Amino acid sequence: MEYLWIPLLILALLVATVLIIAYICFKMAFYEPDRKPNEDENHIEMPEGEIYEQFREKIEKWTFETRRLPHEELCITSFDGLKLYGKFYEYAPDAPMEIMFHGYRGCPERDLSGGVQRCFKLGRSALIVEQRASGKSEGNVISFGVNEHRDCLMWTDFAIKHFGPDVKIILTGISMGAATVLMAAGKPLPTNVIGVLADCGYTSAKDIIKIVIKQMKLPPTLAYPFVKLGARLYGHFNLEETPPIEAVKNATVPIIFYHGEADDFVPCYMSEQNFNAANCKKMLVTVKKAGHGLSYPVDPTKYLSTLRDFFGEEASFFK
């Protein structure tokens, strides 16, 4: 009995080690510190990577043009009490609208200003959502679409109340935003939602996180359980809840998938797998030589024409 403390001490050290590693994983993958608003009107935060440099001028042009557009500041309260913000850009009264969701640790304005320009070319209004833990929106935890897709459903309900019962809505997302709208598509949606646009979305948080772990030269099978545990213990969410590839099996609205064939972050095959899993009206569009989130900048003509063909007159508005 006098040595019983030794195995108990070993067990306590093991538990403490697991909890510490899980906490480190949580901080690295899911935690976003408090943010200061960008007060420099001439500053645009560019994404990292050489693939984006060739599009710097175009991205900056879109961003500055969008900043000058008249818009309405909107705010909702999330299911867990967070203030979430968005900006609405009206193409015309009664025009259909896209509710747009940016990517993981993305800058809403930068990621979606091109989307606003694209919406106007198609005769649509646009609502840019600043996702939880991004921009002015409250929160410090990014949940890879788990909580964000609930926010998406709340923004949809808000838009119907705010803009009227006849408003037509397309849910649009890029990267994690695409996963967000795909997860929302698996839930019952108001009839106002006439479709989903998912650009370079992943099949599941588990799949994309394992890819990132492998890129970090770590063993995915060994490391992933710590990431999942960190999400559960410190982020208070289930990382494997309703992955996009499962959610789309229940989708009833049309979904159009876009993906760059040169995407080295979220592989193009993930959109192919999501497309194959969906049972609704659907289309998959891949763009040659396009990196992550760059399908529209690389080939705007193809992007616009396929959108027009897929959604047709009901998602356009022309005076």
Folded structure, characterized:
- The chain has an eight-stranded mixed sheet, with helices on both faces.
- Helix content is 44%, strand content 15%.
- By secondary structure, the chain is an alpha/beta fold.
- The model has no long low-confidence stretch (mean pLDDT 93).
- Helix 3 (56-68) crosses helix 4, helix 5 (148-163) packs across helix 6 (176-185) and helix 7 packs across helix 8 (220-235).
Largest sheet: 8 strands, mixed
H and E order = HHHEEEHEHEHEHHHEHEHH
Helical region count? Answer: 12
Question: Strand-residue fraction?
Answer: 15-25%
**Separation, N- and C-terminal Cα atoms:** 87 Å
Name the overall outline: globular
Chain-averaged pLDDT: 93
Strand order of the largest sheet: 1-2-4-3-5-6-7-8
Number of strands: 8
What value does the Rg take, in angstroms? Answer: 21 Å
What would you call the structural class?
alpha/beta
Helix fraction bin: 40-55%
The parts where pLDDT drops under 50 for at least 5 residues are none
Structure at a glance:
With 319 residues, the chain is α/β, with parallel strands linked by helices.
Give the SSE layout:
Blueprint: H1 5-29, H2 50-53, H3 56-68, E1 72-77, E2 83-89, E3 97-101, H4 108-121, E4 125-130, H5 148-163, E5 169-174, H6 176-185, E6 193-199, H7 205-215, H8 220-235, H9 244-247, E7 255-260, H10 268-277, E8 282-287, H11 295-298, H12 300-311
Parallel strand pairs: 3-4, 3-5, 5-6, 6-7, 7-8
Antiparallel strand pairs: 1-2, 2-4
